[in-house]
């Protein structure tokens, strides 16, 4: 444990960067997943086809491949993911605005990959909404978009909150790959540097990384358990 105590500042810095990465990726995945879920239930066949193709591709390829194409494919296409340098957001998350783009590439990779699972979790929530409610909404003249916005999606989000939380927990753990694709300073990259550069023993360093990842995931898991128990009592 002395290794963790001696380098607590390194672990804390890596934890903070990993937390930022996970927050931004979670927001991106929720946006993408919601859009894809809407496309998958759209009455327009081309939109359904796009949504289905997206989910099929990203659910069935390894995250490592998604990271690879994001970190090396986008630069080859001449992109530095500058569209993520959003005014105002860069003041909260300064790594978005610096010239090293791999933090932004990691956000893209995690958002695209996790968005496919968010889509399916949310689509399951949509399917849990009684069809009679959607039919009643159509009967009073609501359009497809209004039906989704005011009737279906609010109930679907409530029904899917626990599966969505599980997907976010998985995304937090998946973020450990970011350090091996150029994201300098996150938990995994910081631990790797302690082992290879400073010669620290691997096992204590890995234990330290695990502890900080548990700090990220365990509270969320406890919150999901409480939500599930309250729903069981309500039922």
Description:
The protein is mainly alpha-helical and 235 residues long. It has a single domain (2-121, 160-234), classed as MetI-like (MetI-like fold), CATH 1.10.3720.10. The chain is 77% helix and 0% strand. The protein has ten helices and no strands. The protein is globular.
Short note summarizing the structure:
With 235 residues, this protein is mainly alpha-helical.
List keywords for this structure.
about 240 residues, mainly alpha, MetI-like fold, 10 helices
Map the helices and strands.
Blueprint lengths: L1 H5 L1 H33 L4 H15 L3 H14 L12 H4 L9 H27 L2 H9 L4 H31 L12 H10 L5 H33 L1
Q: CATH H level: which superfamily?
A: MetI-like
Q: Note the gap between the termini.
A: 46 Å
- CATH class identity: Mainly Alpha
Q: How many helices?
A: 10
Q: Could you spell the SSE succession in H and E letters?
A: HHHHHHHHHH
Do you know the CATH architecture?
Orthogonal Bundle
- Category by helix and strand content: mainly alpha
Sheet with most strands: none
Q: Give the rounded overall mean pLDDT.
A: 88
- Helix percent reads over 70%
- Stated plainly, the CATH topology is called MetI-like fold
| Domain module count | 1
How much beta, percentage-wise? Answer: under 5%
């Amino acid at each position: 444990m002395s290794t963790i105590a001696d380098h607590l500042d390194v672990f804390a810095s890596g934890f903070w960067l990993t937390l930022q990465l996970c927050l931004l990726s979670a927001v991106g995945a929720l946006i993408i997943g919601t859009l894809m879920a809407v496309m998958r239930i759209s009455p327009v066949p081309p939109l359904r086809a796009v949504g289905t193709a997206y989910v099929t591709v990203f659910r069935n390829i390894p995250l490592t491949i998604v990271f690879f194409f994001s970190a090396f494919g986008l630069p080859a296409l001449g992109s530095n993911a500058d569209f993520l340098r959003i005014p105002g957001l860069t003041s909260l998350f300064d790594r978005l605005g610096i010239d090293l783009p791999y933090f932004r590439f990691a956000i893209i990779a995690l958002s695209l990959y996790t968005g496919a699972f968010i889509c399916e979790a949310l689509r399951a929530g949509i399917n849990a909404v009684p069809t009679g409610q959607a039919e009643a909404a159509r009967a009073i003249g609501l359009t497809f978009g209004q039906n989704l916005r005011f009737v279906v999606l609010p109930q679907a989000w409530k029904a899917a909150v626990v599966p969505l939380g599980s997907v976010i927990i998985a995304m937090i753990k998946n973020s450990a790959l970011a350090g091996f694709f150029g994201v300098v300073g996150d938990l995994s990259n910081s631990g790797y540097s302690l082992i290879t550069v400073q010669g620290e023993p691997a096992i204590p360093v890995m234990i330290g990384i695990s502890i900080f990842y548990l700090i990220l995931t365990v509270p969320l898991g406890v919150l999901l358990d409480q939500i599930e128990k309250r729903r069981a009592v309500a039922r």
